[in-house]
Fold:
Amino acid sequence: MHFSSGINRPPYEASDGFLQITSGCSHGKCEFCTFYKDSPFKLSPMEEIESDIKELMQSDWDFDRIYLQGADPFIRRTEDLIKIADLIHYYLPQVRSIGGYARVDNLKNKTVEQLKELADIGYGYFYFGVESGDDKLLDRMHKGYHADFVLEQCRKMDNAGMPWIGNFLGGLGGHNWGLSHARETAKVYNQLKPAMIYASELTLFPDTPLSADVAAGKYEEATETERIQEMQEFIRCLNIPTIFRAEHVTMPIRINGRIPEDKDGMINKLQKVLDERGEESLHNYRRRVSSL
Ligand code: SF4
Structure:
């Protein structure tokens, strides 16, 4: 199997089969991320993909979903994705769905009709790294798009009926930026239909440009109290029916529930952790997070 950066997946995809169809990240400019720094962006050749699928066929791993590898495998053209799905279904008839991480701009080269076609052959539940709906923050972090673009592109997913997952990166704005980040991001999601919103917390590692900014006094990280208040505000502002999960290792407490039914419960749970553990204990938790 070819895995240029190991296997990367959200916690919910542990039992999938993994297949690399792109390497690295097509963007690679976000201030807080060097995740794929040793793996330049590349489309995997079809022969390599077919040979990896054959290897998967011979493994004794029991899976019915393929989680594509690379930061944004959904960037591939529809024609390629159809060919890849054909190969997957030919060699691995047990596979029911195909997903992976995605960037919002991966949707630029796909129409609603094409997305419908891709949904019909099993593509779905891609994790879109939206991170924020706050334009100033998106610029500050060099995400490469604005909220309007997120709305325009993700509506295509909704119109095509392809279920998708959006993320919220708590603490991204640093000190004093949490509430506007929470409100602006909820405003974007409230106009869309994500099947799930998946939240995690910014946790800086030494080799990122943002860490250099911290050292140079150009960026101040959010306190743990601010992060909890921001997450509470984000949940409070969401008003679409969806699932909310924040169970990443970067969360000092795991929460999940349905919006809107479980909003109060999740907000109260966050408050309890803040009241009972306090800033220092939560900060110590984050310091111990050594990898994502
Ligand atoms: S956060 Fe995602 S889009 Fe940004 S550089 Fe990292 S992998 Fe690429």
